[in-house]
Amino acid sequence: MRIKKTRYYIPYQTVINGQNIYLKIELDFFQTPKSNKIKARRQIIMAEVEFTSKEQSDWFTSDKWPNWFKEDITDKDGSSSKSIAKRFGKNDKKK
After folding, report:
1. How many domains does the chain have?
2. 95 — pLDDT class (breaks 50, 70, 90)
């Protein structure tokens, strides 16, 4: 089963220490194709924020996230795009 990945770039402006900061959010949609075996598509949505400094990264805590962010998966095993596509794309075969 082939996984489709669609990426959107979202500009995000915020203020850090009185200074306007422009960040880029990469929003990835991973989706399985619909098939006879699987009646519904499965989808994972993941956002990644690009920082230009450690100060920006340290400042961007959960209370400063956009309200549509759910959880931080930075340090979780298997949270890379490649890992998600591999795990998400496994065929649902009967054993």
Report:
1. 1
2. very low
The residue segments making up the domain with residue 24 are 1-35
| 92 within a domain of the structure (yes/no) | no
Please state the rounded mean pLDDT for residues 59-82. 80
Domain assignment present for residue 61? The answer is no
In Å, what is the CA distance from 92 to each residue of 36, 50, 95?
12, 34, 9
CB distance 88 to 34 below 8 Å: no
Q: Which residues, in sequence order, are CB contacts of 38 under 8 Å at separation 6+?
A: 1, 32, 92
Tens-place pLDDT, residues 77-87: 766 766 766 66
pTM, 2 dp: 0.69
How many whole angstroms separate alpha carbon 67 and alpha carbon 35? 34
